[in-house]
Amino acid sequence: MATIREHYNKKVCYFYDAAIGESYFGEKHPMKPFRIVMAHNLIMKYGLYKKMKIYRPYRASKEDMFNFHADDYVIFLKNINEGFISNEVKELTTRFSVGTKENDCPVFKGVFDLAQISSGGSLSAAANIVLGNADIAINWSGGLHHAKKAEARGFCYVNDIVLCILELLKFHKRVLYIDIDVHHGDGVEEAFFTTDRVMTVSFHRFGDEFFPGTGGFNDIGAGKGKYYSINVPLKAGLNDDDYEKIFIPVIIKVMEVYDPSVIVLQCGADSLAGDRLGDFNLTLKGHGRCVEFMRRYNIPLILLGGGGYTVKNVSRCWCYETAIALNTEIPDELPPNDFSRYFKPITKLHIKPEKVPNYNTPEYLDQCIEHVYETLRNIQSVPSVQFMDSPPLFMSPESVSRLSSIRTSTPDSVQSLSPNTVQSWSPGSVQSSPNSFQSSVNSNKSSIQADSVLEISSDEEDNTTDTISSDINSIQTTSTDSAIDSTIMTVSENEYYDDYF
Ligand SMILES: [Zn+2]
């Protein structure tokens, strides 16, 4: 049974690839992957890098994606990576919901690269948790919870969370997935809807045709997975106090009943006040309280990103939650950073709630809690799992050889990220495993290609700044040069920035 240890210092691994900032969905599109670059910059400027291991993650291969996604869908995504739809694949756009006028998942240059970075980060997080290299692993580029097996949805193309959980399931009996994005975590729920090995718990806005429209009280799983999908459908205007009132009792009961051995927390930041798409009213403190609460359990934890469309607040939030993972207090005054002018006139880390009505009455919140308790009452005892010989970790022999070539073929990017001090992460550094499958994990050590993860040393702050500056230039170039197809917008520098803030 899980125990709570409040002041326990944890090993934190953080995964970041600056190339995520080069992904550009289009001028009017609310999804801005550059928010991850801004969050990383704040994290560095607050000095949080001194307290954790920072790695550039492995990039997921299409074979890794095949573990969940349909082969033809993944190959289609790879084929449109240059940012245009050739005649050969044109008829597939409707089938896969990519690049059509009706949906929100455009074709853009680097769409597959984005999926590789996002998924590679979450797979690397899983591998480091399994190896005992981390108590908490963070990938803010991940959390793309809407992607389906053969369909892009809600700005998500490849579901890094499902891939991550599938990896964890090789070594963990029960995985708990918690989703605090303002939208229902439908893609993850659907993937594990019929199994009791994963419990999904989603707190989200529901009703009034709010996207994606699923996640009501009666959405509880099916077959063997019946009662293992938990949904908390909420109304507009939810504030910090009410979020805490519902999150904590629900999670305490879930932990008591399900007793997971690892937790994946999707920290979508579109549940914050003032989000461009969401209509909850949380501050960083209310959102971060969920991270803080989960951290207190003595159970390995993976933190992922997700939605979040008011870019400066997303970066504030994920920086703050990195500090929470590290059990570190950071000042409210933002440090000088590469994006200082975009935070003005507010130079503080924390945000204020908006003056909007909260439609979640105390009676309604009680009703939500009672629904969850009622569902959980159907679970008699924690499910048992028989383990056969442990399966290999995620990297195939092909991936391993490819990774070796990547590392030697990209000396420039490695050099710019961390000159002189790039170190390889080594499984030999594993001290202990947080789970009971240490022996089986160790037997697989040799199958992990440690060179796939590059460590940034703790004195790299200024160099990373340089990297980010050069990334901005490359983004502008990329955006301008990618006008291969009419679906790709060209933007000037000013439009680019105006669009962001
Ligand atoms: Zn969302």
UniProtKB/TrEMBL annotation:
Residues 29-323 form the Histone deacetylase domain. Residues 405-428 have a biased composition (Polar residues). One of its GO terms (molecular function) is histone deacetylase activity, hydrolytic mechanism. It is an enzyme of class 3 (hydrolase). The keyword Repressor applies. GO terms for biological process: heterochromatin formation. Residues 429-444 have a biased composition (Low complexity). Keywords: Chromatin regulator, Hydrolase, Repressor. Its EC number is 3.5.1.98. It catalyses: N(6)-acetyl-L-lysyl-[histone] + H2O = L-lysyl-[histone] + acetate. It holds the Pfam family Hist_deacetyl. Residues 405-444 are annotated as: Disordered. One of its GO terms (cellular component) is histone deacetylase complex. CDD domains: HDAC_classI (cd09991). It comes from the Eukaryota. Belongs to the histone deacetylase family. HD type 1 subfamily. PANTHER family: HISTONE DEACETYLASE HDAC1, HISTONE DEACETYLASE HDAC1-RELATED. This is histone deacetylase. It comes from Chironomus riparius.
